[in-house]
Amino acid sequence: MGPLSRWAVNRPVIALLSWVVALVVAGGLAGIFGGAFNDSFELPDTESTQAQELLEQTAGAAEAGGGTIRIVWSPENGSVTDPAVVKEITPLLEEVADLDSISCVQSPYGEQYGTDCQQQETMSEEELAKLPPEQQQQIQESVKAAQEATSPISPDGKVAYATATIEGGLEGLSIPDAQSIVSDVKGLNGTDGLTVGASGSALGFAAQEPPSSELIGIVVAIVILLIVFGSIIAAGLPILTAIVGLIGGMMLVTFVAGFLDVATFAPTLAAMIGLGVGIDYSLFVLNRYRQGIMAGHDPKKAAMESVNTSGRAVAFAGVTVIIALMGLWVLGINFFYGLSLAAAVTVFMVMLSAVWMLPALLSLLGNK
């Protein structure tokens, strides 16, 4: 990285333009080859995987994989089959079914709402009549037992639930649709003594508030840097360097998602790591530069000294972190491949930002 940093100091304008081109290329790769994030986690030949496969065979892939939402209700008085209760709950089920992320809502009262509801295959009365009486009785008893065991209405008639199937499985529920479901359920809950709730893994993930820890971390870092350096420019350079490198890293994370399974929380993890090391690496270079300026050196010489000393430390530290992250591949678990590579490319981009963009900025800004 030494020649790159020295070139950035000597040719700051060209270096910054080249850095912009590099970011554009990263964005192009993300736009052309990038893929969607997913939380596919499988451990082949393990009991948990066998159990998941069994659930998919018996309960269905959508329900076993968390691709459904259950809306549950219970009246304070009477039964869930009372006309007044049915009248209250039916509009809610219809509203949920109208959402783009929902393919079908199965009501406990027998109705189905949605654009992609699959009818259960059952034996017709004509086909049943062709069988011997003993088999007819066995089938009827089996069907009755199965209906009682899987009935969406409790035996005492006090509780019922509807099942909403998500289009595309667990990851198909959009945040606006999840928030709409939560809002509609809360709006009906408590009306006329009716208790209403909703549950589901997808609902919990999608309805949660976006993470704000990165923003809080940036604000705290700015305050600390302002106190330490006493200058807006000096305090802003490490933040700017880290954020620009982080943007490039997020582009490459999207690019990686086109070839590997990358978890939905991978960008958050990569951002946390990238922001931390990005500010740290920038401070290495900036602090050494300030020491050179305070020693009476001209800005270019001070910048050159900083990249020849702290710049090498940054490159070594960055490569060490990348190697450590890629060590997760040794475990042989597919889930960790995309996760570790996403964090590694983010660290690589913030490291490049610290040894490429920052030296060029220092050379241009001079004593400012």
Write the layout of secondary structure elements.
Elements: H1 2-10, H2 12-33, H3 47-59, H4 61-64, E1 68-75, H5 83-97, E2 102-106, E3 112-113, H6 125-129, H7 133-149, E4 160-166, H8 175-188, E5 194-199, H9 201-207, H10 213-229, H11 232-256, H12 266-294, H13 299-326, H14 334-365
Antiparallel strand pairs: 1-4, 1-5, 2-3, 2-4
Helix pairs in contact: 1-2, 1-13, 1-14, 2-11, 2-14, 5-8, 8-9, 10-11, 11-12, 11-14, 12-13, 12-14, 13-14
Describe the structure in your own words.
The protein is α+β, with helices and mostly antiparallel strands and 368 residues long. 64% of the residues lie in helices and 8% in strands. The chain folds into 2 domains: 2-43 and 209-365, Multidrug efflux transporter AcrB transmembrane fold; 67-199, 2-Layer Sandwich (Alpha-Beta Plaits). Strands 3-2-4-1-5 form a 5-stranded antiparallel beta sheet. Helix 1 runs antiparallel to helix 13 and helix 11 packs antiparallel against helix 12 (266-294). It is elongated and about 100 Å long. The two termini are 26 Å apart. The model is unreliable at 59-65 (pLDDT under 50).
Quick structural gist:
With 368 residues, this protein is an alpha+beta fold. 64% of the residues lie in helices and 8% in strands.
